[in-house]
Amino acid sequence: MTARFHNPVDTRFGWSSLLELAEITENQKVALVTFPEARGLGLVDRIQDLLGDRLVYIIEDVQPNPDVAQLRDTNERFWQEAGDCHTVVAVGGGSAIDTAKALIVGTESGCFDELLALLATGKPFVPARSKLLIAAPTTAGTGSEVTPWATIWDSASHKSIQVQIFSQQARYAITSSAEFFRGAFLGIPVVFLSSGEFSVEDFV
Predict the structure, then answer these.
(1) Where are the beta strands (DSSP E) in 36-138?
(2) pLDDT at position 3, please?
(3) Over the stretch 58-102, which tens digit does the pLDDT of each residue have?
(4) 165, 105 contact by CB (below 8 A)
(5) Predicted pLDDT of residue 6
(6) How many CB atoms lie within 10 A of CB 9?
(7) CA 118 distance to own-chain centroid
(8) What residues in the chain have per-residue pLDDT under 50?
(9) What are phi and psi of 38, to 5 degrees?
(10) CA distances from 92 to 42, 142, 190 (A)
């Protein structure tokens, strides 16, 4: 049984809500953004089974506290290689979702530094290009799946960058972490992952 709440993100929750991912991405090309351990845990295969051929691009090297040094290359490659996709699905904790928010906003030039310069002004702006975002959190933490905000980091300058662009807000949120990990941890009471993408609550 699933339930819905819409304010303003269309949030689907409950067992089997993950299956609605296929319905809400019908006739779309989809990119997946997730964390390094996701494939080993079976999450990537699960999403692939649901989406089939519509899943055209996968980013699975998200690191905790996404840094501009990595995001620059990831953002520019995404727009070069998957610029025709309609939707980005972010699966993971706040870092995966914030990384996806940084990806779905594109500049006319395709240059990430141009986006950083726009953000540095602190003034609202309308992105030249953007994608629809679906957030599927695997943790109960930042609530990034239902906010327009993201935090990215510039470790070289020893600062964080707060990003607020309302087109970054997820169109849909699917909160069904137990379903993601169905059968993945039988007999394993506690697991700690280097990416920090999980909390103990995900396994009980």
Answers:
(1) 55-59, 87-92, 105-106, 129-130, 132-137
(2) 86
(3) 999 999 999 999 999 999 999 999 999 999 999 999 999 999 999
(4) yes
(5) 87
(6) 19
(7) 22
(8) 183-192, 194, 196-204
(9) -60, -40
(10) 13, 12, 18
Using CA atoms, how far residue 183 sits from 42, 43, 113, 117, 204, in Å, is 10, 11, 42, 45, 12
Q: pTM for the complete prediction?
A: 0.85
What single-letter amino acid sits at 17?
A: S
pLDDT at site 164: 77
In the chain, the number of structural domains is 1
Q: What is the dihedral of CA 191, 196, 201, 203, to 10 degrees?
A: -30
CA distance linking residue 154 with residue 188, whole number of Å: 36
Longest CA–CA span in the chain (Å) reads 51
Q: What is the CATH number of the domain that holds 121?
A: 3.40.50.1970
DSSP 159: E
CA distance 2 to 107: 37
Domain of residue 145, residue span: 3-203
SS3 87: strand
